[in-house]
Amino acid sequence: MKLNTNSNTYIIIYSAVLVVVVAFLLAFIFKALKPMQDANVALDIKKQILYSLNIRDLDGAEAEAKYAEVVKSEVEKDGIKYYGCELDGQTKYVFPLKGMGLWGGISGFVSVDDDLNTIYGAYFNHESETAGLGAEIKDSQAWQEKFQGKKILSDNGDAAIAVVKKVENAASEVDCVTGATLTSNGVSEMLRDGLVRGVKLLQAAAPDADAIEE
Amino acid sequence: MALFSKQNKEVFCNPLNLDNPILVQVLGICSALAVTSQLKPAIVMGLAVTVITAFSNVIISILRNTIPNRIRIVVQLVVVAALVTIVSQILKAYVYDVSVQLSVYVGLIITNCILMGRLEAFAMMNKPWPSFLDGVGNGLGYALILVVVGAVRELLGRGSLLGFQIIPDACYDWGYINNGMMTMPAMALILVGIVIWVHRAYFYKEK
User: Fold this and answer.
1) Which of B68, B86, B180 is facing A14, going by the closest CB pair?
2) Residues with Cβ within 8 Å of residue B72, at least 6 apart in sequence
3) How many domains, in total, are found in chain A?
4) Residue B205: what pLDDT?
5) ipTM value of the model?
6) C-alpha angle B92/B187/B85, rounded to 5°?
7) CA distance A5 to chain B (A)
């Protein structure tokens, strides 16, 4: 039998069948791969937290094991989330941050010493900053290392941490990424907002009590 | 029908060189510029495109006599989009860091001119096996250029290949500096231009 492939009935049935077959196929594949993808995303977050604790050379199962060893608690209260960590016998707090870059969202993890004022390490991520410029906040380890040892608050308790064009207060200010002023401003805003609030909240609430709970 | 007759060999080999999709047909340039700042994403992107061109060519070739002429582009798009979605899901599940690096460009394979070009020009009028070879050939031809450009950009831009440092520390001590320009997409355009120039200069002289 020779089908008339140009008749309207044939075209409608053909497209309907094709679309249904493809839809079922895709739905099946989404379902089958979902657990692995979720695991990857979860591992990626764990790796970012380790990066912020200056543990950068681990992958896969190693990172998973190290994370389980280092991160003791995950606390969320009053809208502030933090991870209580134990590194070489010292307590560190890791704050997840979210902010705005030039083209899209930026995020980051910053670890703080137990004086709740000194930054121990930082890691930043972005969605769509310009490669080679704004993307340096993620790609340049050297730039992230500039945050180590910076003081978040000034002596009288005001927010002091900032990313600036011209460093005047070397104790708290970090040089911005050349050619990426707006992205750097975004990082600065993100730190002054989320990190300062988180640190102040913990300082006010005598953190030692709830850092141990699982 | 011989699997590797002379004709089939030509179908496979031509896109690698004389009829290269990037160098001669100048298709698929945008993604070639975007994903070649390092070697690894370039290789994965090349493989992804190869797999997708090969299988979409086969599927369209099998269906070619049943596809209504008036909606053939729609059917081709549906097949390509389904394959691209599958590949991007597989990348997310098995090589997560690469899929983050490739970001939107995997999805944009759908609009890669090489695919639609091969489906329209070849798969719609050839049997599945030659279509498969044509798809693999064109995909590899594309991958070849990506790898060349990716290798040069990573070597000069970061001093490494596949993440391993190639340029010794001694060079840096002597004042060698990685060329930051190489990590920018603009340099990919210039490199592709140079490759096309060399390729044409060589093969047009032969003719």
Assistant:
1) B68
2) B124
3) 1
4) 66
5) 0.71
6) 20
7) 5
Provide CB contacts within 8 A for A154, sequence distance 6+: A160, A172
At residue A120, the 3 state secondary structure works out as strand
- Only one residue has tokens 């091969």, namely B118
Q: Looking at the complex, does the CB of residue B165 fall below 8 Å from at least one CB of chain A?
A: no
What string of DSSP letters covers B130-168? HHHHHHHHHHHHHHHHHHHHHHHHHHHHHSEETTEE-S-
Rounded Cα distance between B108 and B188, Å, is: 18
Residue B39 placed within a domain: yes
Structural domain for A188, as ranges:
72-209
Residue B130, in any domain of the structure: yes
B87 located within any domain: yes
- Within an 8 Å CB–CB cutoff, is residue B185 touching chain A? yes
A6 and B37 within 8 Å at the Cβ level: the answer is no
pLDDT in tens, B11-38: 777 777 777 877 777 777 777 777 787 8
Over the stretch B102-126, which tens digit does the pLDDT of each residue have?
A: 767 788 788 788 888 888 888 888 8
Residue B138: domain span: 27-206
CA atoms of B109 and A94, how far apart (whole Å): 38
Asked, for residue A153, whether it belongs to a domain, the answer is yes
B15 and B49 Cβ atoms separated by less than 8 Å: no
Query: Do the chains contact at B68 and A22, CB–CB below 8 Å?
Result: no
Query: Does A22 sit within 8 Å of B82, measured CB to CB?
Result: yes
Q: Is residue B10 part of a domain?
A: no
Q: What residues contact residue A73 under an 8 Å CB cut-off, 6+ apart?
A: A83, A84, A210, A211, A212, A213, A214
